[in-house]
Amino acid sequence: MTRSPDVDAYLERSERWHDEMAELREILLRCGLDEAIKWRSPCYSSGGKNIVIIQEMTAFLSLMFFKGALLDDTDGVLREQGPNSRSALRMEFTSVDGVQATAGAISRYVAQAVAVEEAGLEVEAPSELTLVEELQNRLDADPVLKAAFEALTPGRQRHYHLYISEAKKAETREARIDKHVDRILEGKGLRDR
Q1: What DSSP designation does 95 have?
Q2: What pLDDT is attached to residue 171?
Q3: pLDDT of residue 84
Q4: N or C terminus: which one in the chain shows less Cβ crowding within 10 Å?
């Protein structure tokens, strides 16, 4: 596979995990993946389907498998993204030695992820979202807001719901809704710019 000049530039700018990313890049390219910058990070695909993305975290470098939940984690190296993540799982690295030590596992997991995509497998859809009471009441009272909320992607709807429902007090949940009404009306997710 050919190297992307955009990924070259990304690596040049990286200060914290440069060497680890360079090592991961070589492994992923040997797996036959195509590389590009997506979501401001090096992303690797096969047949136009996203397989993995490299994400620079503060404490570690992440190699996130988009459909990691469908992989057989025989080496026990995959970690959850967070408590509300449904499909993505990641490997975490803090050194070049760590990347090199798991090179075989990385290659095997990439091969599995490519096979998952080629087979057309999908992570089971989440159950229907039951919105937190304050959000549901606000949507019921405001048809324009309700239409805008329903036009958001399911992931954006879920993200708003989780963010609002995390607040312990009803007043805080109401304040969070108030704060983001304009974003919802603009069709933006919680973290969209």
Answers
A1: S
A2: 95
A3: 65
A4: C
Cα separation, 133 vs 16, in Å, equals 43
Cα separations (Å) of 122 from 43, 56, 89, 190? 19, 26, 14, 25
Q: Is the pTM of this model over 0.85?
A: no
The pair phi, psi for residue 140, each rounded to 5°, is -65, -30
What is the rounded average pLDDT of the residues 22-32?
97
Establish how many alpha carbons lie within 13 A of residue 25's alpha carbon, considering only the half-sphere containing its beta carbon.
Answer: 21
Q: Which residues, listed in sequence order, are joined to residue 169 by a DSSP beta bridge?
A: none
- The pair of three-digit structure tokens given for residue 41, joined into one six-digit string: 């990070």
Residue 166 CA: distances (Å) to CA of 63, 80, 157, 187? 28, 19, 14, 22
Which token pair is 108?
Answer: 């095997």
Report residue 118: phi and psi, to 5°: -65, -30
Q: How does pLDDT run across 34-73, given as a tens digit for each residue? A: 999 999 999 999 999 999 999 999 999 999 999 999 999 9
- Angstrom distance (rounded) from CA 5 to CA 149: 38
Degrees (nearest 5) of the Cα angle 78, 82, 88?
A: 50
Element (H, E) at 9: helix 5-13
Task: Assess contact for 138 and 92: CB atoms under 8 A.
Answer: no
Instruction: Extract the tokens encoding 33.
Output: 């993946």
Strands (E), the chain: 34-38, 41-46, 49-56, 61-65, 79-80, 89-93
> Other C-beta atoms within 10 Å of 59: how many?
7
